[in-house]
Design a protein that fits this description.
Distance between the termini: 7 Å
Largest sheet: 8 strands, mixed
Order of helices and strands: HHHHEHEHEHEHEHEHEEH
Structural class: alpha/beta
Bound molecules: guanosine-5'-diphosphate
Number of helices: 11
């Protein structure tokens, strides 16, 4: 799993063959390679720097056991630290959606995969947890997005709130709440409008919706291939709206998943799910080990 980084570190340690403990120079030389590996995996620079500092403290003076090479030892320390950073205390797959009907707000930029993820999540909650789910699109600017959610709902057998022209996002959210209560739904997912970039109008609208329904979970959907951009988006949404979890989409692509580490380090919020394709069953619970392996390459 770690051949690439191990090989690189092997090269570094060939020049520095000292047994016993890892010296400061050994570690510094090795961490230069680790830093490159992180940056190549699209981890943001400040996060990579911080991470390296923490590993440096842990690795310097660490005893090198006989059975593994110093390179392998550093890779193990890096790997363990990656897992510790990526994994939170909470069970990522378990949303806090007791006390029906529980509102879940889906937020993110346009094109991040928000609508698809809403349907994926609805399907998962229905099929795996036996929940009765209602979905509603709040994207009043893009009728096509509303239609898209309705089509997905029909495909997966999940109800969507009927579309009423001329309503504001807040009005739709309130109607969803009412329908979810009257209809005995366990959960209602609100697919908020996205924009191409973060702007105030968008944030004001999401805030107004949030205040109207008090969501139990606010899930930020971000494109896992976008690296630093994804982190900026997460920071903005966390500040303005408050986020309870992150969904990284397009993790089926050939990106190395560094956005996961940056996201977790910067927002401190758990990554709950990863999107692994366009189909509505392509959503998996986030696994720190898998992503750590990918980042190390
Ligand atoms: P929205 O504008 O944020 O609602 O984005 P959409 O849900 O419409 O998704 C935009 C495009 O990304 C669509 O073509 C989706 O099929 C695709 N998409 C969404 N999630 C994933 C994913 O996890 N992997 C891949 N490969 N494509 C995805």
């Amino acid at each position: 799993m770690f051949e690439n980084l191990s090989e690189r570190l092997g090269g570094v340690f060939d020049r520095l063959t000292k047994a016993g403990a890892l010296s400061a120079e050994d570690v510094t030389a090795a961490l230069r390679e680790v830093r490159i590996a992180l940056l190549e995996a699209d981890v943001s620079l400040p996060v990579a720097r911080d991470f390296i500092k923490r590993v440096q403290v842990k690795a310097t003076g660490a005893a090198v056991t006989k059975s593994i090479t110093p390179g392998q030892q550093v890779v193990k320390i890096v790997h363990d630290e990656l897992i510790a950073t990526l994994r939170g205390d909470e069970d990522p797959g378990k949303l806090k959606i007791d006390n029906p009907p529980a509102p879940v707000l889906m937020v993110g930029l346009q094109g991040s995969g928000k609508t698809t993820t809403t349907a994926k999540l609805a399907r998962r909650l229905t099929e795996r947890e036996g929940k009765k789910v209602l979905m509603a699109s709040l994207d009043t600017n893009r009728p096509a997005a509303m239609e898209q959610l309705a089509i997905l709902g029909t495909q997966i057998g999940v109800d969507t709130l009927p579309i009423v022209k001329g309503e504001s996002a807040v009005q739709i959210a309130k109607r969803a709440k009412q329908q979810a209560t009257l209809g005995g739904y366990d959960v209602y997912l609100l697919d908020t409008a996205g924009r191409l970039h973060i702007d105030e109008v968008l944030m004001d609208e999401v805030q107004a919706v949030r205040d109207a329904v008090t969501p139990r979970e606010t899930l930020l959907v971000v494109d896992g291939l976008t690296g630093q951009d994804a982190v900026n988006v997460a920071t903005e949404f966390e500040e303005k709206v408050g986020v309870t979890g992150v969904v990284l989409t397009r993790m089926d692509g050939d990106g190395r998943g560094g956005a996961a580490l940056s996201m977790r380090a910067v927002t401190g919020k758990p990554i709950r799910f990863v999107g692994l394709g366009e189909k509505t069953d392509a959503l998996e619970t986030f696994e720190a080990e898998r992503v750590a392996g990918r980042i190390l390459g």
